[in-house]
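STRUCTURE:
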């Protein structure tokens, strides 16, 4: 399955590419990639940088051009979509007919997993994860909870 991008998304990726392409040469070298990753508090070795580049360097130039970068972003989007689909599948296992996870649902599931949880503890977990201000967890809360974005 190939991810199709609209013009706005492509322009957004073009802007991101320009951030990586510090010298404006039309490609991303291992030095440029390393600088950006270090700015993001990563500390890749030269070998790791080469591995990243070689994964997407279709023309074997030793750098990443915009088309290769765009393909890399499409692959990342596809992985993200698959993760979201996986989250939806897991949520459906835990959720009730209303499409929510109630404290009693959470307690039941965790007790089946040998996690002894009182009704009050289940309410506290849901309250902590309850980003939409309801007395239950809705799908959007669940995704944020699992992805660490709460």
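SEQUENCE:
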């Amino acid at each position: 399955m190939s991810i199709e991008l609209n013009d706005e998304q492509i322009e957004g990726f073009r802007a991101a590419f320009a951030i990586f392409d510090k010298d404006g040469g039309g490609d991303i070298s291992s030095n440029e990639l390393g600088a950006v990753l270090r700015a993001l508090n990563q500390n890749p070795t030269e070998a790791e940088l080469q591995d990243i580049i070689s994964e997407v360097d279709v023309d074997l130039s030793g750098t990443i051009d915009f088309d290769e970068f765009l393909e890399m972003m499409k692959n990342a989007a596809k992985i993200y979509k698959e993760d979201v689909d996986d989250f939806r599948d897991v949520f459906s296992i835990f959720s009730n007919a209303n499409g929510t996870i109630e404290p009693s649902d959470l307690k039941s599931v965790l007790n089946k997993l040998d996690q002894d949880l009182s009704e009050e503890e289940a309410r506290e977990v849901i309250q902590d994860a309850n980003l939409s201000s309801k007395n239950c967890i809705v799908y959007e809360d669940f995704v944020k909870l699992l992805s660490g974005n709460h």
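REMARK: The two ends are 30 Å apart (CA to CA).
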